[in-house]
Design goal:
- The chain has 13 helices and 14 strands.
- The chain is of the alpha/beta class.
- It folds into 2 domains: 176 residues, Thiamin diphosphate (ThDP)-binding fold, Pyr/PP domains (Rossmann fold, 3-Layer(aba) Sandwich); 114 residues, Rossmann fold.
- The strands form 3 sheets. It has a 7-stranded mixed beta sheet with strand order 3-2-4-5-7-6-12, sandwiched between helices.
- Strand 2, helix 2 and strand 3 form a beta-alpha-beta unit.
- Helix 1 runs parallel beside helix 2 and helix 1 packs parallel to helix 7.
């Protein structure tokens, strides 16, 4: 296939359509408004439905309804808007509804600004809504990677009957990159493969085939049993869906941990410092839930590793998971900025040199 220069938001939206999404419900908010704008034009062309809801709260509940029919449905928003969706996201998780949610992160807290950030890590990974639930959460570092993940995101959502979250900083949505778009998937809802879905029932049909979408269980025993069903799906996802990238970590003495766009900055630092004779590598989680603890531990706790530098555009939210993985076996330091100020290669390089000099 030929490469096409596309803006990230538009490329990700097109990938969702090619993966079979035929329903989009959302509300405009910078820096992801180009996603619903693109969907408003493309969905009618493919026989789908675009609807700008009256609010983020309405949008996520529309997702709940469409997903309940077995259709492939997607919504997008940015940090404050995703906060408004949290109750509905918990409902979708509780009702075991497959769907895809895009969070194009911007600076916060509060309204913050409209620039890129990584401040929603806790919200996405630790659970922003109520109850014991998880979202299969991807943190792409390029437009192409976001496209590639989108092509199997709905499959994973349907396999585990759980929502999938894309945790992408605003840079990925706003930048343009040459990408290779996949072929269109010919997706149709198959009631036999989705017996849980509300695909149509009439008197006289087998009552067992009547779809009931629900997330409320009044008596404690039923809720406990339902939660155990959810937890079993999460255990399966943990065992099978971890994704990560190790970049020049085999002989590294210092390892940078980072996700999303910051990992790209980290790779540049690795290459620059390698050229100077410093053995530096990078570990990047692609799934931030389930988090690849064992893989990170294997890379960062190798005998030659002297230190780890976690780099993020937040207060050090992923740092907690890095520490959990390393279990105190190696010294860990954090470098980052709040809000939307991204670290420079020079800043990261100087921090590693400081760590090296102090040892």
């Amino acid at each position: 296939m030929a490469l096409t220069l596309m803006k990230g938001s538009e490329a990700i939206a097109e990938a969702a359509i090619r993966a079979g999404a035929r329903f989009f419900f959302g509300y405009p908010i910078t820096p992801q408004t180009e996603i619903p704008e693109y969907m408003s034009e493309r969905m009618p062309e493919v026989g789908g439905c675009f609807l700008q809801a009256e609010s983020e709260v309405a949008a996520i509940n529309m997702v709940y309804g469409a997903a309940g029919t077995g259709a492939r449905v997607i919504t997008s928003s940015s940090s404050p808007g995703v906060s408004l969706k949290q109750e509905g996201i918990s409902y979708c998780a509780g009702a075991q509804l497959p769907c895809v949610i895009l969070n194009v992160m911007r600076g916060g807290p509060g309204l913050g600004n409209i620039q890129a950030s990584q401040g929603d890590y806790f919200q996405g990974v630790k659970g922003g809504g109520n109850g014991d639930y998880h979202l299969l959460t991807y943190a792409p570092s390029s437009v192409q990677e976001a496209i590639d993940i989108m092509m199997f995101a709905f499959d994973k959502a349907e396999k585990y009957r759980m929502p999938v979250l894309f945790l992408a900083d605003g840079i990925i949505a706003q930048m343009m990159e040459p990408v290779e778009m996949p072929e269109m998937v010919d997706y149709k809802v198959d009631p036999e493969k989705k017996p849980w879905a509300c695909t149509g029932w009439k008197p006289g049909d087998d009552p067992a085939k009547r779809g009931v979408i629900n997330s409320i269980f009044i008596d404690t025993e039923s809720l406990s049993e339902h939660n155990e069903v959810l937890q079993e799906q999460y255990r399966l996802a943990k065992a099978n869906e971890q994704m990560w990238e190790c970049y020049k970590t085999e002989d590294a003495e210092f390892i940078i941990t980072a996700f999303g766009t910051v990992a790209r900055i980290g790779k540049t630092v690795v290459d620059q410092m390698r050229a100077e004779g410093h053995k530096v590598g990078l570990f990047r989680p692609i799934t931030v839930w389930p988090y690849p603890y064992d893989a990170l531990k294997a890379a960062c706790c190798a005998p030659q590793v002297k230190g780890i530098l976690d780099v993020e555009v937040n207060e050090g939210q992923m740092l907690e998971d890095v520490k959990l993985a390393v279990e105190g076996q190696k010294p860990i330091e954090f470098f980052g900025h709040f809000g939307s100020q991204f670290p420079t290669t020079g800043e990261i390089r100087n921090k590693i040199l400081e760590m090296k000099e102090a040892m």
